[in-house]
Design brief:
It is a single chain. The chain has 171 residues and is α+β, with helices and mostly antiparallel strands. 33% of the residues lie in helices and 36% in strands. A 9-stranded mixed beta sheet has the order 1-2-3-4-5-6-7-9-8. The longest helix has 15 residues.
């Protein structure tokens, strides 16, 4: 799906109108809106990996990622942030996303356009990868549906030493 046809300019800023959701380039202030309202599964995953707060993790994600996008509801509430950052390996990007329950509320729209956005992230990287908390079953199902493969189980990962899964996708 070509995302260009959904692009529009509002008040001098670019965004993509996906019906019930908008996507636009992220701003640092989005980290506060999303970080304070994270889905419990995302909150648990952040806590399992690091001592940093979800807001700090999101601020770092926004500043280190190229590209980085924020998902907004029609009412203007930031409900998710996603992007890719360099991994240090040629053609490999670390893909990530954190969101609020508003993504679940708008799951049909989110699912409909997800593949287009993953393809957009692949423009800079042949391989996208990261790890995911094995407890996060809904996200694991979504990643599988998006064409990611789970290539390794890490029995003890992060500060909580929990089971995580390494996943990747090639184009």
């Amino acid at each position: 799906m070509k995302l260009g046809r959904f692009q529009e300019e509002v008040d001098g800023e670019v965004r993509w109108n996906l019906g019930k959701l908008y996507v636009r380039p992220s701003k640092t202030k989005d980290a506060y809106k999303v970080g304070l309202n994270l889905r419990q599964a995302d909150r648990d995953e952040v806590a399992a990996q690091t001592v940093e707060s979800p807001i700090r993790v999101l601020v770092d994600g926004i500043t280190e990622s190229r590209p980085c996008y924020t998902i907004e509801t029609r009412g203007g509430s930031a409900c998710g942030i996603f992007g890719t950052r360099d991994s240090g390996y040629p053609d490999c990007g670390v893909v990530w996303m954190l969101g609020t329950d508003d993504i679940t509320t708008n799951s049909r729209t989110f699912l409909r356009y997800s593949r287009g956005w993953i393809n957009e992230l692949h423009k800079n990287y042949r391989m996208l990868y990261n790890v995911i908390d094995a407890r996060n079953e809904i996200h694991i199902e979504w990643l599988s549906w998006m064409g990611f493969e789970f290539t390794k189980t890490i029995p003890q990962y992060g500060i909580e030493r929990r089971k995580f899964l390494l996943f990747n996708r090639y184009v």
